[in-house]
Amino acid sequence: MLSAFARAFRTPDLRRKLLFTIAIMAIFRVGSFIPTPGVDYANVQQCIASQGQNDLLGMVNLFSGGALLQLSIFALGIMPYITASIIVQLLRVVIPHFEALHKEGQSGTAKLTQYTRYLTIALAILQSTTVITTARSGFLFPNCPVEVIPNDSFMTSALMVITMTAGTGLIMWLGELISERGVGNGMSLLIFTSIAASFPTALWSIAGGANGAVNFTIMIAVIILVIGLVVFVEQSQRRVPVQYAKRMVGRKMYGGSSTYIPIKINMSGVIPVIFASSLLAVPGLIAQFGDATAGWVQWVSKYLADPASPIHISIYVLLIVFFCFFYTAITFNPDEVADNMKKYGGFIPGIRAGRPTAEYLDYVITRITSAGAIYLALVALIPTLVLVLLGVSTNIPFGGSSILIVVGVGLETVKQIDSQLQQRHYEGFLR
Q1: Structure pTM?
Q2: Each residue of 353-363: pLDDT tens digit?
Q3: Strand, helix or coil at 105?
Q4: Which of 18, 196, 412, 416 is most buried, judging by how many CB atoms fall within 10 Å of its CB?
Q5: With contact defined as beta carbons under 8 Å apart, do 139 and 284 qualify?
Q6: Between 3.40.50.300, 1.10.10.10, 1.10.3370.10, 1.10.1740.10, what CATH number should domain 1-203 receive?
Q7: Per UniProt, which keywords does this protein have (predicted)?
C-alpha cells in the first residue's frame, strides 16, 4: 500500500490533487483554533479544563474537530451542512417537487444542492445564536468560574453570529473544492479530519489514568477489532441477479445481458446512530435547565443521560434499529426499482416482473436491514461498553460510530485513488 502511495505521488495530476486535498484539510484544522471575535481565549481554555459537557454538545464538538468548545470561527463545523442534507433528503418523501427534482438528473440535483446550501446558512445562524446564548448563560461550561464572553452587547453578539455563520459557509465551500479539484468526497473528508483529530487526545487520556497501560492496550485491541468488523461489513453486499431480455430497436438488437443489484448490508450508513444519539441527548440537555434536586432531573440523569445505564443502552439500540429501517425505506424504494426494471425489460430469474419483483426486493431488504441494524448497534456500543467494564471515565467521542465514519471515508477515498491509478495503468491499492 505504501508503494501505491509512492506511485500516486509520482503521478503529476494525482499528486497535485492529493496535495490540494491535504492543504484544504490543514486549513480546516487551523481555522478550528482561531477564536471568534468577542471570546476571551484564556478563559475558554480555563473552562475547558473544568467543564462537564453533555452528550449533545459532545456530538457537535466531535464533528467540529473540537472547535465548538474552543468557540472558534469554525465552531459549528460541518454539522449544519449534514443536518441540511438530511432534512432535504427526508423532505423528498413529503414534498413532491423535491422528488421530481431528484428524478430530473443533474439539473434537479444541482437545484437540490442549492436548497441545501441555503438551508445550511439558515441553520448556521440558528445554531450559532444558540451556542453563543448557551456559552453566555453558563450552560456550555457548567463548572467554569469565569466568563468566556465578557462583552454582552448586541453588536458583539451579532458579530459573533456573522463570524460563525461565515465560517460554516467557508467550510462548505472548502468541502466542495475538495470534491471538485481534490480526491474523495470533500464533506466526508472534513468529517474524517474532525473525528480523527480527537482520537489521540481521547486515547492518551485513557493511557494516563489508573492501569493506563493495560486499559490503553485493551482499547487499542478493541478498536482494531471494530475496524476489522467495519471493513468486512462495509465491503459486503447482497447481489440480486437481474436478466435483461433481448429487444429489437430498428435493426439493432439490444439487451440479453446479465447484471445485478448491489444491496449493502448497512445501507443507512451512520445516520441512524446520529439520530439516536441526538434524541437520547435531548432529555439530558433539558434536565440541565431544571432543579438538580428535583426527582425527574435525578431520574433523567441516572437512567437516560448515563451511557452505562441499561435503560439508556436499551433505548439506544431500539432507536438505532428503528432509524435503520426508516432511513432504508426512504432511500430504497422497491416499487420504483421494480417499475424501472420492467420498463427496460429486466427481471429477476424465477420472479415475475412487476409487483412480485417489488415484494421480493422488499423481502430481501428487510432481511439485510435486520442484520445491518444489529451490526450498527454493536459497532456503536462495543467501545462504550468496554470503557464501562474497564472503569474508565474518559469516553472516546461518539463511541464506535466515529470509527465507522473514519473507516468508511478512508475506504471510499482509497477506492477513488485506486481507480485513478488503474486508469493510468498502475497497480492500485486493492490486490
Answers
A1: 0.77
A2: 888 888 999 99
A3: coil
A4: 18
A5: no
A6: 1.10.3370.10
A7: Cell membrane, Membrane, Protein transport, Translocation, Transmembrane, Transmembrane helix, Transport
